[in-house]
Specification:
By secondary structure, the chain is an alpha+beta fold. Helices cover 52% and strands 18% of the residues. The protein has a 4-stranded antiparallel beta sheet with strand order 2-3-1-4, covered by helices on one side.
Length: 127
Amino acid sequence: MLIQRTSMKRVALMVAAVMLFTIFFFAWATLQQRESTLAIRPASQSVSVPDGFSIWHHLDANGIRFNSITPQNDTLLIKFDSSAQSAAAKVVLDRTLPHGYIIAQQDDDDKAAVWLSRLRDTPHRLG
């Protein structure tokens, strides 16, 4: 009887330890995924969106790595792995692009916060 209780306690502790490790692992993985976006827009309608190739050339010449360059609604979006890379790219592009562009750094929101805001803003009908 005493042996069964001791082994049950050990099993319960092992299960709790595995669950705790799993929670910490997923929390760490979530915190590591921090993409950042740099948006480049023309300041007036007389200026066109910059060419993605020239942006790539400026960033590559300064050793700044990026994930993608995508045009979207009169804006050029550049995705980076971190906000530090995005900030370095902003400094380079502020220096190299001609005047007439708005360059804004946007850190992507936490996915959980985005889903919570979607749930909160969606009307729910019960019954």
